[in-house]
Amino acid sequence: MMKLRMAILLISLGLVGCNADGTIDPTLGGIIGFETESKRGNKGGQTYQVGTADLQTDVDVDTAYLKIKREFGFLTYEERLAKSPNLQRGWLEKDTSFKHTTIAGVSYQMKNRVPHAFGGEKRSHNFEANVEKDGEGSIVMMKFWIPSQDGLDVEAYSKSIEARARNALGV
Question: How far apart are CA 82 and CA 79, in angstroms?
Fold first, then answer.
């Protein structure tokens, strides 16, 4: 019976600060966090509106990746570490608000806080972009989280993100 209690205690301690996918989220301060796909989300007591913008293009996946990366200011792990010398790679790899994975010629995933100008004001927010091969072209799927108290029209904001991506891709 004592062994069972110890096992339950160890498992419980192992879950503290983990996301639903099992990754550690240091921004939650030890609380288990879950991301939602709904139009509203809640993380760390802050309420967010979630928006998406998707587009299909004839631009090949590798070129589309480079153009989206440059336009929105996404950084690779190495670029982010060089920009913040006190940051450790191990911590960065566990940070769920940052991601940069590449499979050249197939797909790219990027997630970071990036700036975007809308309604005459520049804001930084969590932003994710996935670029995947689609025949000779590619599909760009973007998702962003903005604080609800900003009172922004998520649909209009999505359209401005999509227009910015289209402009970067030349479509």
Answer: 5
Alpha helices in 45-153 (DSSP H): 61-72, 77-83, 89-94
Whole-number Cα distances in Å, 107 to 53, 102, 166: 17, 6, 18
Q: What's this model's pTM, rounded to 2 decimal places?
A: 0.70
pLDDT in tens, the chain (171 residues): 545 444 443 444 444 444 443 433 344 333 222 233 334 455 566 788 899 999 999 999 999 999 999 999 999 988 888 888 787 777 777 778 889 999 999 999 999 988 899 888 888 889 999 999 999 999 999 999 988 877 788 899 999 999 999 999 998
Q: Are 124 and 140 in contact (CB under 8 A)?
A: no
Radius of gyration over every alpha carbon of the chain, rounded to an integer in angstroms: 18
- Report the distance separating Cα 61 and Cα 63, nearest Å: 6
| C-alpha 71, offset from chain centre | 15
